[in-house]
Every structure is written in structure tokens, then in C-alpha cells.
């Protein structure tokens, strides 16, 4: 039986544009699937393939297998989204405690995370930590797991991981520096710098709201890398070559992670190769601990029973960063007086 049949299923666990790339890539690799297209708006996936005499329910279970490690499940029936407002009872106090610690560190001068509306290396590092644990970074984890599986079959586990992380850190510094250097080619006027700063703040605000996982309308607003670029970047992991881990590390710079893109956008305003490179390097270093843990274990915050609390806490922290950035941007152009005397 070679008939190709089209099916449409619901996907539970989709949060952002990275989820589209992840689900399409994983399902597209299945031998009996010839076409797959995910839809973030409807949280669904259209699949064309030859599944023999299997029922839609059996097919949904089969499609769930490669997606389950990434936090997705496929079903025939639409699953009701549960906002879990109860999580905020724990998430809010933790986020408030983080905010208090943040202010104390600023007042003592131990860590300078905010400086006249700019994103400092400390800020980039903290955002990197949050990004590495968020669903937006799931696609990078998927790349890492896919590449690891390919090389593990040949008994080579450590070297590819070191090449991946090394390539990622170096590429983020170099490519971040290139973006910064491009920014130096033209001088941003005060209004242009303010506009970019506000855009960065709004992108961060949208990312934070999405992490709360209670307002589905915000998912449609999240920016993403052009799909064809992201697909080519993701496809690199499928090649079995000595340099593949290095190339995959470089490719992560172009994947659809909103946090990465907000940092890239800020880097453009630095107007300096060194500042741009160090900003992106700081962000990459922030993502390193979790990605390194993922390299040598089955660690996944998405599958944790406490993931709802974590994501809501992270969302509140990101929203706080966004509001700091927007407020400081207004201070810089003189619209409002300084609010935070750091």
C-alpha cells in the first residue's frame, strides 16, 4: 500500500516559532512522512504520509514518539489549554525576591546590570540563562540532541560536544562583532537609537508574556528569523562530518529564538565590533551551563512537574527587564526623570 493520505492533528506544547521548526524537522525525518506543516496559530500539524491501516489515534501516538523528548504531544482531539494561575502564588514571590536581589546588587555596585538604558554584559548573561531554560531555546536543544545521537552511534561523545560549544561561543563573538561593526558604519540619531531601544523592550516584553503561558494571543506577535534561513541552519545537524558539530554551533546564531534576536538587535546599536562581540558572547555564556548539561544528560525543564512555575517566574523576570529598558529609554531622551538611581 503506497497511498499517501493527509491528516491534521493537534499539537500540545507549542509556544513560539521555534516550535514550528522543531515539530516540522522531527516529523519530517520519519520514513513514512512525505510532507509536514505546523501551524502555531491553531497549534496543529498537517501531515501527509503512508501509515497503512493505522487509525488516526495510532498515528498520533506514533508522531508523538519523536516529539515527546522536546515537550510536545500529538492528539486527534484538541487539548484544552490550562493557564494554571495557581503557579503565580509561587512564581510572583520568587520573581519579587529576584527583583530585590537585583536592586541590592545595583546599590552595592557589585553587579552593574543596568546602565543608562543600555544592555550591559551582565544583563546579556542573565538573559542568556533565562533563554537557555525557556521553550524558545528548545530548538537549539533539539539540534544538540540530534547531533549527539548521530555521533554517539560511532562512539564519539565528548569531542563533538566540545566542538559544538566552542563553535557556538566563537561564532557568537565574531558574528556579534560583525553586527556591531555594521552598526558603526552609520551613526544612529537620538531618535533612531530610542526607537531601536523601544523595539528591544517590546520584543522582550512579548517574550516575557509568552513565557507566562496564559495569553495565547501574544504568541502571534513574537518575531522570528525567516523560516528558510532557520531550516537551513537546522538541517546542518543532519550531516555526518567531522566539522558538523562546529557548523551546528555556528548555525545556532541564526535560529528563531526571540531572546537571541533581541540581543542581536541591541548589538547593532553598540557601533563597535568589540562591544557587539562581547555582548553576544556574554549571552552565549549565559546559555552554556544548561546546554552543556543537556549535552551529557537527559535534562529538560519542559518535562519537569514544576515547569509551569519556572516559566512564569522567568516570564515575570523578563518582563521586569523589558520595563527597565523601556523606562530607561524614556529617561535617556528626557521624557521622564530618572526612576532607578543606579
UniProtKB/TrEMBL annotation:
InterPro entries given in the database record: HMA_dom, HMA_dom_sf, UreH-like_TM_dom
Residue ranges of the TM segments: 88-105, 125-145, 166-186, 192-218, 239-261, 281-302, 314-340
Residues in HMA domain copies: 5-71
GO MF entries: metal ion binding
Record keywords, A-Z: Membrane, Transmembrane, Transmembrane helix
Gene3D superfamilies given in the database record: 3.30.70.100
Protein origin, superkingdom: Bacteria
Pfam annotation, one family: DsbD_2
Protein name: HMA domain-containing protein
Source species taxonomy: Bacteria, Candidatus Yonathiibacteriota
